[in-house]
Design a protein that fits this description.
By secondary structure, the chain is mainly alpha-helical. It contains 16 helices and no strands. It has helices at residues 7-27, 33-44, 48-62, 70-77, 80-94, 101-110, 118-136, 140-158, 168-181, 184-192, 194-215, 220-224, 229-245, 251-258, 260-278, 285-324. Helix 1 runs antiparallel to helix 2, helix 3 crosses helix 7 and helix 11 (194-215) runs antiparallel to helix 13. The termini are far apart.
Length: 325
């Protein structure tokens, strides 16, 4: 399958991440129908982070990024680290960290500088172990083992155990299934049953969410967490359905896809800004939700496009200076 078919997948994923973080705010403020509305939106967006890991595994494999030359592979993949370190220290400053060695190390190695930075630490880890996984996850046995590891991790999490913020084993299957999907005959297995997968996933994710929230435990964490098998089924359904029925890139998703990483980095800051601006206003929760969503998406996108433009100009300047020396 053409890699362009994944543009809509990644573009939708970054929109989903923003929706998760904004709806999460209103789940703690609203009640009745409003609470259910934000819970449904939150759950329908839960494909977002898993989808990024699937797309990463797929992209690395389909592009043959590792061909045995570990040095070349790592040099290219670890280009993500400088930007990650920069944003880590930005968030350590934003959140008024005490600057103890523990806080700094936790920010760098565990993504503790902000609630969303764990994703980058897990992604870097997956980049590092990809040379080991890339052959293993192409087999049915391999991907089954990845599934069992992830299910075991989720079972421990749902039972109340905690292992620290990254929970990398809970994301392992998604990265592995991305590698698995890079082979056409494997991907076709998902495409053939895309509608059924999506329908079952929708029933599973909304059913378990409402059960944990309204029927059994009244537990917001359990009803919204991505650490549930239902999210796995739903995510596979969304990916398969989009690849099968919406493989031609949409312009809006293309724009968000091209700016996805920078939007991911900066959107919590934009969310903090708009929250402060809305304090003391007479807007309803729903009006605030729409304003926040529009502000965070638009301003984060504008920031990302400006950041990319400035970065390109700086690289060109350094290249010209280097050529003259």
């Amino acid at each position: 399958m053409n890699r362009k078919a994944w543009v809509n997948v990644r573009g939708a994923a970054v929109l989903g991440v923003v929706l998760i973080h904004i709806t999460g705010l209103f789940l703690r403020q609203d009640s009745g129908f409003g609470d259910s509305f934000y819970l449904v939106l939150n759950q329908l967006s839960r494909f977002a982070v898993p989808m990024f890991f699937i797309a990463s595994g797929y992209g690395l494999t389909i592009s043959r990024s590792y061909t045995g030359d570990l040095g070349t592979y790592l040099k290219k993949r670890m280009k993500i680290v400088p930007a990650y370190l920069m944003w880590t220290f930005v968030y350590l400053i934003v959140h008024h960290t005490d600057w103890s060695l523990k806080s700094i190390m936790g920010g760098i190695f565990l993504g503790n500088s902000s609630y969303h930075m764990y994703f980058i630490t897990v992604l870097i880890l997956f980049y590092l172990i990809y040379p080991i996984l890339h052959n293993f996850c192409t087999t049915y046995i391999g991907i089954t083992i990845m599934l069992l590891i992830t299910l075991a991790g989720q079972a421990f999490f749902l039972s109340g155990s905690t292992f620290g913020k990254p929970y990398f084993w809970n994301w392992l299957f998604y990265f592995g299934v991305g590698i698995f999907m890079a082979y056409e005959n494997h991907l076709n297995l998902f495409l053939k049953c895309s509608k059924s997968l999506l329908l079952l996933g929708l029933i599973a994710i909304l059913g378990t969410s409402f059960y944990f929230k309204y029927v059994k435990f009244n537990n917001l964490s359990l009803s919204t967490t991505s650490m549930r098998p239902a999210v796995m089924l739903y995510t596979l359904g969304v990916v398969a359905f989009m690849l099968n029925w919406y493989s031609k890139p949409f312009k809006v998703f293309s724009v968000f896809d091209a700016n996805s990483l920078n939007i991911y980095y900066v959107h919590p800051i934009m969310l903090m800004i708009i929250q402060k601006l809305l304090q003391g206003t007479n807007t309803t929760n729903f009006e605030s939700f729409l304003i926040m969503l529009a502000f965070v998406l638009i301003v984060s996108l504008l920031f990302s496009m400006s950041y990319r433009w400035v970065s390109t100009k700086i690289r060109l300047l350094f290249r010209r200076v280097g050529n003259t020396l």
